[in-house]
Amino acid sequence: MKNAFVILTGFCLVFGSACGNKGERSATTGWKYNDQAWGGFEKLDYEGQVTGPNLVPVEGGTFLMGQTEDDVTYEWNNVPRRVTVSSFYMDETEVANIDYRWFVYWTRQAYGASYPQAIVDILPDTLVWREELAYNEPLVETYFRHPGFDDYPVVGVNWYQARKYADWRTDRVNEMILIERGILNPNPQQKDSDVFATDAYLARQYEGSVRENLPDLATGGERPVRFEDGILLPRYRLPTEAEWEYAALALIGNQVTEKDELITDRRNFPWDGNTARYKRNDKYQGQMLANFKRSRGDYMGIAGKLNDNAPFPASVRSFYPNDFGLYNMAGNVSEWTEDLYRPMTQVTLRDVENHDLNPFRGNKFQSVVLDESGKPVQKDSLGHLRYRMVTDEEAEPRENYDRGDVSDYWDGDSLSAAEYSYGVHTLINDSVRVVKGGSWADRLFWLSPGARRFMNEKAASRVVGFRCAMTRTGGASIDEVTGGLDFGGQNTKQTKRRYK
Question: Mean pLDDT throughout 206-224?
Fold first, then answer.
């Protein structure tokens, strides 16, 4: 009965047409919504985006992005500038070994027999633990696979693998939403191209084991879920550098009152103060707030009084979360972001009005491959729609962009003031991505959210992991209403703060 109630409640929350607004009319035409006699056009009583598993809502706003400490490295790669970040969702924790192992397991079950390379492509590089003059060999065998490390952040994952995990997670979450709503039956035996993929499902190239489709008001029959129904979530993805830094700082904790647009001061770290120790006068005073290398040769303190309790990564829910409820936004492991790295972050005067909202570098615009009738061509052998790069000829007539690949826009191409010569006097090219947050092997300086480094997108490291983000659709402000599905109780805490 409980599951039936959840399904019915979720249906009513999303489908106002089934819950009392049949007589509502269009304000501009007078025609009735949700009435088959008037054509069956649906207008939903939409209650807002459901908070996906492990996500925390991050209300957007303006902040001063960039360094908050002295630039001791003299790189000048994070000059402060004011930007605005839209509201979004961020993973409460770094992606753990148990989470990534399930990804590998699912891929092996679905594609292993026909496409073994699909498994090879996503396996973490466990050899990152090897060191010439250190005995870390046990971690090569145990860190990713042993249950003792289940809740520790996955490492040895490159940028491409992290993005593949995010895509896979999108499909599994959306499939579970359809199962929880009673639309699809569970199908754990999916194989090859006959797997649930969000894009293929919305394009009607995946049907699955249907339990009960939605009523179709236009025909009087039934239909699969559409994008316009607002049921399926946007895709999980890597956060942009601006999103990651904004979420890490969590300046909402320094807001004077809820009614004022004022904060008390800036932050050097995801907490107040300039040290990494808990300062309040209680039993936690003096304890570490993050997992990092305190000094040369000191990774965790002395026996009997360990300071951060971890000579390498700690559990993903170790230490205190910041004011957005996010764990380990400083220390533990550094994290991949979506951005292509460039040392000069200051926008030019020409572009300042356009690129101080959700700043990001690395866009490569894509389009679904269509047939002659304008419909998506047959999905690929792994079950997803086929995509192609937008050509420069397609983009040229537009005013808002003129190329399909704008990774080098005003930086490194013929229109730029600077040109990068990889291998000659720089290691920067179009294959290096921004890495944020200090790790268990870093000094305190690198735990500042404004600090930034880069790594080749095909490389992996024992100090770099990742967490996912998700775009917020609709309104930006937060209220206290809980709605939608709770994914088996996993989102009980997070959905208490939800957007209007």
Answer: 94
